[in-house]
Amino acid sequence: MLEEIVNRKKTDLKFFQMPRQEYVPHYSLQKSLAFAGIHDGIGLIAEIKRASPSKGEFASDLDIISRAKAYEAGGADAISVLTDQPYFQGALTDLITVKKAVGLPVLRKDFIIDERQIEESARIGADAILLIASILEPNQILEFSKLAKNYGLESLVEVHTKNELDRLLDVYEPPLIGINNRNLKTFKTDLNQTIELFSHVPEQSLVISESGIHTAEDVSTITRAGAKAMLMGERLVTDGDPETVIPELKKGAQLA
Ligand SMILES: O=C(O)c1ccccc1NCC(=O)[C@H](O)[C@H](O)COP(=O)(O)O
After folding, report:
1. What is the rounded distance in angstroms from the CA atom of residue 52 to the CA atom of residue 46?
2. How many angstroms is it from 146 CA to the middle of ligand 1?
3. Quick check: is 13 in a domain?
4. The whole model's pTM is what?
5. Which terminus of the chain has a smaller tally of CB atoms within 10 A, N or C?
6. 51-52/78-82 β-pairing
7. Under which EC number(s) is this enzyme classified (predicted)?
8. The ligand 1 atom nearest the CA atom of 189
9. Which domain range does residue 109 map to?
10. Which residues approach ligand 1 with their CB closer than 6 A?
11. Is residue 137 part of a domain?
């Protein structure tokens, strides 16, 4: 699936057009999550996600402005916006819309494989980008992170296996490391991934546990493992009242 997504991305990049610059205020993802880690025990990146390869469509009629505002009101510390169209029904304009609706850092969640997508992310107003270790070489991650920094963007580097983490750390110790609990071959999520990989992450990196987090108990599990932040998509996007549920989920960190 990942290979299919990346091949499609390469094809789409043949028709690439640089968007115009949006002028928006910027916020640091790292600072926001670190502050929440101290204040609430866990930081939350709440995701805008309409569909996924694993679940198909589950929120195609999502009102992204009211959802993003509800995330903010509920106590999310950042918002992730999936901008991939073919597999997630996202769009660059979703990120622009969300960024203008809230006063939080916004992560562009996409499959970044080309330097032009980094300038594109900066132009649409993202505060941070996702770099996925399973589709990029460690040196590329280092170069893309430097380029992102030049554009004023932070990078969240995502790993799923110990091998990906080891190869990455040989060349670069990212300040923000995402441990993806989802196996992108089987789509199965397992929070043990966070538990197993956490001890191999450098102390100074802030760990974000991603995917498959649904309950306060799950939040307690990943907090106990050492994660200082979490990224939640489906659970929040399908909830009728994220404003109420976010504080309840965050309380899981206090049970750890
Ligand atoms: O969500 C998927 O099915 C998926 C499949 C292939 C590549 C990426 C995928 N998801 C992107 C994400 O990183 C998740 O949206 C994010 O971690 C939130 O996950 P969840 O809370 O389980 O919706």
Report:
1. 15
2. 25
3. no
4. 0.97
5. N
6. unpaired
7. 4.1.1.48
8. 22
9. 25-255
10. 1, 47, 49, 52-54, 184, 187, 189, 210-213, 231-235
11. yes
**Taking Cα atoms as reference points, which of 254, 196, 207 lies closest to residue 230?**
207
Provide the 8-state DSSP code for 214.
-
The rounded Å distance from CA 211 to ligand 1 centre is 6
Q: What is the ipTM of this complex?
A: 0.97
Q: Are the beta carbons of 179 and 207 closer than 8 angstroms?
A: yes
Task: Report the residue among 6, 94, 182 best suited for mutation to probe ligand 1: largest number of ligand atoms under 8 A from its CB.
Answer: 182
Q: Is residue 236 part of a domain?
A: yes
Q: Which helix (H) or strand (E) holds 170?
A: helix 162-171
> Using CA positions, which residue lies closest to atom 1 of ligand 1?
52
Task: Write the pLDDT tens digit of every residue in 134-168.
Answer: 999 999 999 999 999 999 999 999 999 999 999 99
**What are the tokens at 141?**
């991650």
Burial 200-213, CB ≥16 within 10 A → b, else e: ebeeeebbbbbbbb
Nearest Cα to Cα of residue 100 among 187, 213, 23, 207: 23
In the chain, the number of structural domains is 1
